[in-house]
Amino acid sequence: MDASIPDLLRLLVVPALGWAALRDLRTRRVPNGLWRPLVLLGVVLVVWEGYVAFGTPYVFQRFAIRVAFSILFVVPLAYAFWYIGGFGGADARAFMTLAVLYPTYPSYELLGYSLPVVETALGVFSLTILTNTVILGLAYPLVLGAQNALSREFSVVMFVGRRVPVGELTDTHGSLLETHDGFTRDGLDLDALRMYLRWRGLTLADLRENRELRDPDTLPDDPNDPTGGAVVADGSGDPWGAAAFLDDIEGSAYGTTPADLREGLDLIVDSEDVWVTPGVPFIIPLFVGLLVALTGGDVLFWVMDALGLVPA
């Protein structure tokens, strides 16, 4: 593969992002420390290429504009998506990392082919990765809706969720899409549910078989991880001990409130199956989007060009 040394070094992000995608699929957790060395590598490579281009004013100007666009537009855009809840924290950090690593189009030669095949006029490669990822991400709701339709699970949430037996919730990622009052966008996070069960040392079957566990007087005196502190129940004012649980872990259960936890637990013990939004691990389409960008290039630009929407 003929390429510059900086472009070859950039390929280190491929196995790193592949590992992150696999871990995100299995655990929905990606260590923050993964991104720091990649960002540092990106900064070094940008300085390296900037130094090489500095001797040619026109080349340096184009390079500087693309670097500035990637860092000053794509990075804030990724942060904005995270801020409004469109991305998870790891997703946003991954996009920001790629904005630093790939501000301009790389160039590779493989088996006589020049890659990426399709380049945009703007020439900001991180934007190509972003658009490819969004296109791939938009396909997921369509697949989810089709699966639900084939299973005859028709609902207003059939494009964003799936029906899951309650007994499988402890092995499912995502959050509830409903309460006793109907569908909701702010249902109980299933990670918080698992934390609560471990804290009490119970299983879902325990909760469903013994309704007396709703009484906060049944809370353990010595809770299990992730709390490790003693809890003193104060009686009937805290059904399920939801507030006691969150107080004991300093309220850090993925934004879960006592009301969210109570509503989720009430629904779970009364239902056989529930609607769950799977919480798409966005790093997976990001990884695929990167691979497509490195080989085929910009999918959106290719489609627009094929439709005659790109100025000659």
TrEMBL record:
Prepilin type IV endopeptidase peptidase domain mapped to chain residues: 12-141
Subcellular location: Cell membrane
Enzyme class: hydrolase
EC number: 3.4.23.52
Membrane spanning stretches: 33-51, 63-82, 121-143, 282-304
Pfam family, one: Arc_PepC_II
Listed GO MF terms: aspartic-type endopeptidase activity
Topology term for the membrane: Multi-pass membrane protein
Domain Preflagellin peptidase C-terminal stretches: 271-299
Main location group: membrane
GO-annotated cellular components: plasma membrane
Swiss-Prot/TrEMBL keywords: Cell membrane, Cell projection, Cilium, Flagellum, Hydrolase, Membrane, Transmembrane, Transmembrane helix
Protein name per its UniProtKB record: Prepilin/preflagellin peptidase
Provenance organism: Halobacterium hubeiense
